[in-house]
UniProtKB/TrEMBL annotation, chain A:
Annotated MPN domain residues: 62-192
GO CC annotations on file: eukaryotic 43S preinitiation complex; eukaryotic 48S preinitiation complex; eukaryotic translation initiation factor 3 complex, eIF3m
Role played: Deubiquitinates activated NOTCH1, promoting its nuclear import, thereby acting as a positive regulator of Notch signaling.
Keyword Methyltransferase among record annotations: no
Protein biosynthesis among keywords: yes
SMART domains assigned to the protein according to its UniProt record, in alphabetical order: JAB_MPN
Transmembrane segments: none
Name of the encoding gene: eif3f
Record-stated family: Belongs to the eIF-3 subunit F family.
Keywords for this protein: Cytoplasm, Initiation factor, Protein biosynthesis
HAMAP family recorded: eIF3f (MF_03005)
Source organism of the structure: Sinocyclocheilus grahami (Dianchi golden-line fish)
Designated name of the protein: Eukaryotic translation initiation factor 3 subunit F
GO process terms (BP): formation of cytoplasmic translation initiation complex
UniProtKB/TrEMBL annotation, chain B:
Biological source species: Sinocyclocheilus grahami
Record's GO cellular component terms: eukaryotic 43S preinitiation complex; eukaryotic 48S preinitiation complex; eukaryotic translation initiation factor 3 complex
Name the UniProt record assigns to this protein: Eukaryotic translation initiation factor 3 subunit H
Domain MPN: start-end pairs: 22-156
Matching Pfam families: eIF3h_C, JAB
GO molecular function, one term: translation initiation factor activity
Compartments where found: Cytoplasm
Annotated spans, Disordered: 262-296
GO BP annotation list: formation of cytoplasmic translation initiation complex
Family under the similarity heading: Belongs to the eIF-3 subunit H family.
Complex and partners: Component of the eukaryotic translation initiation factor 3 (eIF-3) complex, which is composed of 13 subunits: EIF3A, EIF3B, EIF3C, EIF3D, EIF3E, EIF3F, EIF3G, EIF3H, EIF3I, EIF3J, EIF3K, EIF3L and EIF3M.
Domain of life: Eukaryota
Amino acid sequence: TPKPVLKVIVANVVSNCFCQPPTSARGQQQESHGDLRSLSSSLFIIILHFLYEVMAVHGPVVKIHPVVLASIVDSYERRNEGASRVIGTLLGTTDKHSVEVTNCFSVPHNESEDEVAVDMEFAKNMYELHKKVSPSEVIIGWYATGYDITEHSVLIHEYYSREAPSPIHLTVDTALQSNKMNIRAYVSSQMGVPGKTVGVMFTPLTVKYIYYDTERIGVDLLHRTRASASRTNGLTTDLAQVASAAGRVQEMLSTVLSYIEDVLSGKVMADNSVGRFLMDLVNKVPKITAEDFESMLNSNINDLLMVTYLANLTQAQIALNEKLVVL
Amino acid sequence: MGSLKDSAVSGSNPLDSPVKQIQIDGLVVLKIIKHYQEEGQGSEVVQGVLLGLVVEDRLEITNCFPFPQHTEDDVDFDEVQYQMEMMRSLRHVNIDHLHVGWYQSTYYGSFVSRALLDSQFSYQHAIEESVVLIYDPIKTAQGSLCLKAYRLTPKLMEICKEKDFSPETLKKACVGYEHMLEEVPIVIKNSHLINVLLLDLQEKSMVADKHELLNLSSSNHLEKSLQLLMDRVDGMSQEIVKYNSYCRNLSKQQQQKQQYLQRRQQENTQRQSRGEPPLPEEDINKMFKPPQAPPRMDTLLIAGQVNNYCQNIKAFTSQNLGKLFMAEALQGHSS
């Protein structure tokens, strides 16, 4: 794999550039130092950047479903007194280039300054139970709330590497240290000179959010609880839903219209790509002659009206039947 | 939970039950959606257990876990054991482990069945406030979440307890198909931290809104709904035929009884006039055994199901009519 090779290269470059050249005149030394230093630092930066890109591409992309994050937040809210963070197992499926996290469960653990204890029996049991429902999900890693990766994390990660090949470690910052809930994923890799002290480095991975269609709709509904003060929201009736969807489209249309006005009056520079999208949009409204459209519309409306009539008739029929029996 | 049993269930107000409102956590909604999406394709139903607690007259559902499907190699699978283990484990991580109901997915709204009735009855018998959540994935895929909560009415509970489904008891209790299940309003609640999470997700994920709700095509859905409706109406007509034949048999038998009694009377008077002892009274009931009254529960269920289908169809058509009128307005401007 290119990863360790690149790391060795970096180590070599760094050691070569930053160690003093053995014999030179003093003035030359300083100059060469300066040159070399700036050269080496820029080289170092370039290589680091390259490494980050390469590593981010070589590591699997982590795709998370929102149900996992909601579960993590919920277990954080229910943590025991005195526990500063919660950990748990991540379940999902792996692919050649990506890892899809679809489920998780929390595992009780105790953490103090110098030791950490995880209830592994519990983790195994829960995994067995979950497997009965979805046999295709496997352990792909573990999560922890909190911002940093501590030494205890390394130990826990080691345990999980016994359960799964190259486990993913997910951190969710529920304490909102940077005013945001940072969700990061890491994969561990060995670091250091082989043969001597070996350490573990957590390399970051790209995180994407993935939804099923129905999940998307569910999450949209959940978004609306943000608006109300009591954080609650009822489920709307049918026509009201169509009305709200139409309202949303109307909002979008008004935004686009205001943008167009700005461009026309010269306030904003015209952007060709946006213009092309606008043309697509206008052309999407199908051009149908008035009579054809009338007939299509009428036949559709007639279908729906007939079905409504049938449904009402059926309901009246069974109500009658009910009354007759009771007589 | 115990104190709520004191609240009177008079039965006059249809929603005069211990549970007036259901409050669901966002997490439960997401879990149910995920469960159906992954494990239940086609017309199979997926089921699971709801956990939560009861607060005043609200039922709060805070978590849930799914039940595995009943597949081939499940001879030695113990549902009760699975449930017990799951609840014990969840208690370790401070999740509410009180059983408050169960959920089920449905196919085009066909969930009013004997199985559901039995399950819900056993739940409600054990835990008074339990509900069944029906999740309709097909309607949800059409644009907005369709989740409904039902309970059995107290009258129906009484009847199920007696297990007596003959027409007379049903007539006495005045239970019609509309009074079988009562719907409880649902409210979704999220904690502050989850709201923060949702904000974060909205920023990061650029998944475009599909606007499924404004989709104009309706024939597929209508076809399937109507087909299911027709099946049920067929079943209904069979039940009606059965009941009618029972009524006819009963009345015929009454007639025969009357005739027999009359003949007996005549013979007795003849014998008396001749001076012979009258014939002994025979047990009429043993001679004319009354026909078996058909159980009315199935009819009730079918009627309830047909009603449900009709309601769904009407809601669907009203939505589509609205959309068609909007499309007309759109065309009207350009033509």
